[in-house]
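Data deposition worksheet. Section B asks for the primary sequence of the deposited chain exactly as it was used as input, without tags or linkers unless they were present during the calculation. Section C holds the resulting structure in token form. Section D is free text for depositor observations; keep each observation to a single sentence. Incomplete worksheets are returned to the depositor.
Section A, Depositor: J.P.
Section B:
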Amino acid sequence: MLSDKMVAAINGQINKEMYSAYLYMAMSAYADGEGLKGFSTYFMVQYHEEMVHAMKFYEYLARQGNKIVLGAIQQPPSEFGTMLQMFEATLEHEKFITRSINELVDLAYQEKDYASKAFLDWYVTEQVEEENNAVENIQKLKMIGDNSSALYLLDKELGARILNVPSNFALGVEAQMNGAA
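Section C:
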């Protein structure tokens, strides 16, 4: 059984992950409105990944027999400026999520909750990937500068991103990720 403090912290993380999904949906909509369908696709796939992150926490609490309490999700911005500015905002947001995950790991150690610590290891690794993806796209966008032809090519590249995470949450995210569903 998880401590009340850990349950509250994980419920808070569910909200942060749901906000992340909402933020990336807003970025997808913005890119679509700018005529950049590839960027839109990239961020819609990111939306789905964040929903999986939230559902993994949800399922973890449920499996441990704890109450899930969903909070209100803050409205994300609707304007993001350039694609470079959007990816810079992405990196800052992912750094915020990384700090939050690290705080959960710290709490797991404080509570001597080694099951939660083991569960959180997946997120620690995932956050390295999330930040790296943002950094790589920032580097590409800085290299591109104002070159619209290069932006077009990057839009095509980002549009090739495919959804490779479970999207049917009714089947259980963990079960699908482990090939059991």
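Section D:
The mean pLDDT is 95.
The chain has one domain: 4-166.
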